[in-house]
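Amino Acid Chain and Its Fold in Token Form
===========================================
Purpose: to set a sequence beside its fold so the mapping can be learned.
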Amino acid sequence: MKFLDLTKVYIRSGGGGNGCVSFRREKFMEYGGPDGGDGGKGGTVFAETVEGLNTLIDFRYQQHFFAQNGQSGMGRQRTGRDGDDIVLRVPVGTEILDEDQETVLADMTEVGEKVLLAKGGNGGFGNLHFKSATNQAPRRANSGQEGIDRTIWLRLKLIADAGLLGLPNAGKSTFLAASSNARPKIADYPFTTLHPNLGVVGIDNAEFVMADIPGLIEGAHEGRGLGDLFLGHVERCSVLLHLIDGTSETVAEDYRTIINELEAYGGELADKPRITALNKIDALDDEERAEAQAALEAEVGGPVMMMSGVSREGLNEVLRSVRSEINDDRIRQKPVEEPAPWQP
């Protein structure tokens, strides 16, 4: 399945049906009076979050959503049929933006949340509505209201509790595969990860969701490499785990590159709680580990954790540190498996 997190959609609500001008015509009924019915209401366009979706790929193949118009009124006091509504089913974490891509119309973060995007037009009144003691044979009816045309953008931001950051080949995908049930593509060349991956991490009978974001490079905010295209997916995270390649000869510069890109991206991303870990220490001896850790701590100005996604050394300590930065209301308790009943 192809990953898609930004798409343009054209919507239109249904127009209301016209009112009817009609008079009762029956044998032996000389003064039947007006009996024109009202027009039906046009269909409304909604957006609703549903389970089982994690991409906007469905909107790549259909971008136009037009609700049904209301039926016009008819004689014998018959009201026109209302137009059918249209519901855009989107994944949890979808932001709905106006055509300028800046104005946020809705931020849908819970399953079952429903938002009105374009209201259907009201149906027009038939001449029966205008009957009065002084106007017993009205010959006028209202037209139905027109529908609303809108152009909106759907932008998906993944719902994750923790996010992984780092340069290409920092070992993010290996870390996610070692700590969760996710199986992202892993290779020894940069930019292996081309779209975000999610994994459920379990530690100490607690579970949280971690997102692996494609690697950043210097100048990403200007569009270099994959740019900062996917940084929006970690805006909802409680904590960021910054992985540094321990085999690099410039660990301090690698750290500063990512921090500069976070600051250039803007928003609250650079101010989020951040844990720094030196990865791939299984390829270093004790002296190289101490030298790399000292250089990185001097640049970070705080403690740096040591770990290896391949040998799993220090992995649980890093996960516990990440877990401590996540609010308890976002943590899910791992279900306890009851032993099977004894059978002879």
About this structure: The CA atoms of residues 166 and 243 lie 5 Å apart.
